[in-house]
Amino acid sequence: MNRVRCLVLNAALGPLDYKVPDGMSVEPGQVVECPLGPRAVIGIVWEAERLPGAEVPAEKLRPLRGLLPIPPLPAPLRRLIEWTADYYCAPLASVARMALSSGGALKGPATTIEYRLTGGLPERMTPQRQAALEALEGEQATIRELAGIGGVSEGVLRGLVNQGCLEPVEVDCDRPYHLARPDFAQVDLSDHQQAAAATLGAAVKAGKFAPFLLDGVTGSGKTETYFEPIAEALRMDRQVLVLLPEIALTEAFLSRFEERFGAKPVLWHSSLKSTERRRAWRAIANGTAQVVVGARSALFLPYAALGLIVVDEAHEVSFKQDDGVRYNARDVAVMRGAFEEIPVVLASATPALESLAMVESGTYAKLDLPSRFGGAAMPTIRTVNLTEHVPGRGSWLAPPLVEALEERLARGEQSLLFLNRRGYAPLTLCRNCGFRFQCPNCSAWLVEHRFSRRLACHHCGHETPPPDTCPECGEPDCLVACGPGVERIADEVAERLPDARVFVATSDTLNSPGRAAEFVTLVENGGVDVIVGTQLVTKGFHFPDLTLVGVVDADLGLEGGDLRAAERTYQQVAQVAGRAGRGSKPGEVLIQTRHPDAPVIAALAAGDRDAFYEAETEARRMAGAPPFGRWAAIIVSSEEESEARDAARRIGDARPRHDDMAIYGPAPAPLSLLRGRYRYRLLINAKRSARLQDTIREWLGALDHPAGVRVGVDIDPYSF
Ligand code: ADP
Ligand code: ZN
C-alpha cells in the first residue's frame, strides 16, 4: 500500500494522508513536499505502514510532490517530537517545526549568496547610503540581514549592489568545521573531578540512557569534568550537545573548549545568520558537527549520531520557553536522552528542587564536586540589615557595603554589585500630577535607560525618548525617577568612589559575543574596579581578582507571591556569591536585605544549602507544588479585552470536576496586557497521579472560540 501519513508543518490540521507516486520510495522521517489546497507545503512522513483510521479512500488521495534532499528525521527525534507535543499539550506541527528550523537548509543547493562592501563609492551619495556604508564595514551577510544591521531598507542595499559598492560572495554551506580532537590537551583533574568524569565517561561508552546530576559548588570545575565524557564521545565518533542558558556569554566557554579540544564547537542560537544556521543545521544532520553548543532550541535538531547531552547551569529559568511551545529544555533534554539511549548530564551548583527529587527517588544519579578547584575557599557571606543600616536619601548602598567597596578599591581588588534590574529606574513619574509612564502595549511601567536616553518596555520593546515636560500636565522639570536600576547604582558608585572604574554589565551592554569577550578581557586585565550587573553576570565568569560581591536588594525577587520566588532568589544569590574569591584571595559577600530572618536569606548567610532545600521542600509539600503535585496554567488572550474575558469565562464554566485537581480562575494574568493582547489565566493544581494533560485536552478540545482568541497551555509553569 503506497499511502503515507504526513505531518504538514504549516497547518494545525494534524497528520494528513497522501499517495506515494509510482517510482518514489519513502520512509518515515523523510521531509517531503505535500500538496495542500493550491499550494505545496513542507511535511514530514510520520507513518508509512500501519495507518489506523485511514478514512480518506485511496482514489481520493493526492500524490506527494517530491522528496527534499536531506536525511530523514531519525526515529528517536520523531518520538521526542510526539512526546513533547503530548506532554506540553502543543500542536505536533509546532514542535516538528523546531526540528526543521533551518529555513533555507531544506531546499536547493548547499550554497547561499552573501554580500560585502567592495570599498567603492556610489555615484550619488545619499544620507541613507552613507549610513549603510558606515554600518556595514566588515560585515558579510544576506541582503535582508545587512538591511537589519545597517538599519536601512533592502531597496537601498540593492541600489548599492547596482552601483558596485556591494558584491556577492557565494558561501558553501557544506564547508566543514574544524575537527575537535579528544586528546588535544588533557588536564589534570582533582580527585573528585576524576571520579565524576570516570563515571560519566563510562556511561558514554556504555551507550545507554543514564541521567546524572553533576552537583558541584561554584568554582568546583564542572566544565572540565564534563569535558571528559565529551572526549569519550568524540573518540566514539558520536555527537555531543551542550545546552547553555546565556548563549551571548559563551565566549569564555568557547575558548576553554578550544584549549581542551583544539577547535571551537558549532554554535546554535536564535541570532545566527541564516547562512551559519543553514551550515550548522546541515552539519548536525549529516553528523559532521561533532559538538554543538546551543540555546534550548538546539534540543530539537536532527543529530545524526548523538552520544551525550550536557545541560549546564541546569537550574536556569531561561531553559523554560514561555511562548509558542511552552517547554522546559532541562526536562526535554532528559527525555531526548531516553529516546536516544544516551547519558544526560545536568550540571549546577544550585539544582532545581525537582532535580534533587529525581535523585532522591533514584531516577538520576548524583555526582558531587564538594569543593572549589585548586583549594580556593568558599566566600564568607553576611547580611546587611537595611532597617539598621539605612542608606541615605536617593542612595541604595548601605554604609557597610560602601566601606567594603572602598577597601577593595584600596587593595586593587575587584567588586561586583548585583541588581537584577536593567536601566536607570523602573518607574518614572510626574511630581506635579502623579502621571506614570506606562507601556501602551503592556501592563508594565516604562524603564528609564539614561545612558541611551530612552524609556523602554522590557516586555515588548516599545521605546520613546524621555520628554522634557510631563505629557499629562505639561509642567517642565517635574519628572522623577523612582527606584534603582543598575545604571543608577553605577552612578552612585561613581559618586561615592570617584576613582573607581565602573562597568555596567547587562544584556544592553554585553549584547553580542564580541562585546562579552571584550568585557571579560577588560576585567581580566584589571581595567575595571566595580562591575554593576544583572543576572547576566551571575554565572560562568571566573575573575580571580574579584573578591567582593554585593547583593543590592535580595528582597527584590521575593515580592509577588510566586511559588518559585524563594528558590530563584536562593539560586541567583548563591550563583552571584560564587563569583567572589575564586582565585587565591578570599571572597566576601554582602547581602542587603530588609528581612535577614527570612528562611532563604538566613540559609544563604549561613551557607547552609541543605537548610534552604529542607525549608523549601516543606513549603512545596504544603502547597502541593512540584515535586509533590503539579501545576498547569491556561492562558487565554485576545486583542479585545472582552473577547479574552468571555473566552476565559467559557473555559472556566466548562471546567471538569475531578477529585485530584483544583482549578482556580479565570483571573487577569500577572501581565494582564502583553504586546497588545489582554490575558486571562486559569491555574490547575493536580495530584501527581492525575491525568492532567488528557483532562486539559478533552476540556479545551470541546470548546470553540472567536478567531482572535488564543488559548495556550503551560505545563509546569515557572512564574505565576
Ligand atoms: P564551575 O563551573 O563549577 O563554577 P569552572 O568550571 O568555571 O567551575 O572552574 C573554575 C576554574 O577552575 C576555572 O578557571 C577552570 O578553568 C579551573 N579548573 C577547573 N578544573 C581544572 C583542572 N582540572 N585543571 C585546571 N584548571 C581547572
Ligand atoms: Zn510593552
Structure description:
The chain is of the alpha/beta class and 720 residues long. The chain has five domains: 3-74, GIY-YIG endonuclease, CATH 3.40.1440.60; 114-172, no CATH class; 191-369, 3-Layer(aba) Sandwich (Rossmann fold); 380-426 and 483-619, Rossmann fold, CATH 3.40.50; 629-715, Alpha-Beta Plaits (2-Layer Sandwich). Helices cover 30% and strands 23% of the residues. Helix 10 (329-340) links the parallel strand 13 and strand 14. The two termini are 50 Å apart. The structure holds adenosine-5'-diphosphate and zinc ion. Residues 187-189, 193, 216, 218-224, 373, 542 line the site of adenosine-5'-diphosphate (ADP).
Count of extended strands = 30
* Number of continuous helical runs: 19
CATH architecture of the largest domain: 3-Layer(aba) Sandwich
Q: Which superfamily, in CATH terms, is the homologous superfamily of the largest domain?
A: P-loop containing nucleotide triphosphate hydrolases
Q: What coarse outline follows from CA principal-axis ratios? A: globular
Short description:
The chain has 720 residues and is an alpha/beta fold.
Write the topology of this structure.
Elements: E1 3-8, E2 16-19, E3 31-36, E4 39-47, E5 66-67, H1 75-87, H2 92-99, E6 111-117, H3 127-135, E7 140-141, H4 143-150, H5 154-162, E8 166-172, H6 191-206, E9 210-216, H7 222-235, E10 239-243, H8 251-261, E11 266-268, H9 274-286, E12 291-294, E13 306-312, H10 329-340, E14 343-348, H11 353-360, E15 365-369, E16 380-385, H12 399-411, E17 414-418, E18 427-430, E19 447-449, E20 454-456, E21 463-464, E22 479-482, H13 486-496, E23 502-505, H14 513-524, E24 530-533, E25 546-551, H15 565-577, E26 588-593, H16 599-606, H17 609-623, E27 629-638, H18 641-653, E28 661-674, E29 677-687, H19 692-701, E30 710-715
Parallel strand pairs: 9-14, 9-15, 10-12, 10-13, 11-12, 13-14, 16-26, 17-24, 17-25, 23-24, 25-26
Antiparallel strand pairs: 1-2, 1-4, 3-4, 3-5, 6-7, 6-8, 18-22, 19-20, 20-21, 27-29, 27-30, 28-29
Helix pairs in contact: 1-2, 1-10, 4-5, 6-7, 16-17
This protein binds adenosine-5'-diphosphate and zinc ion.
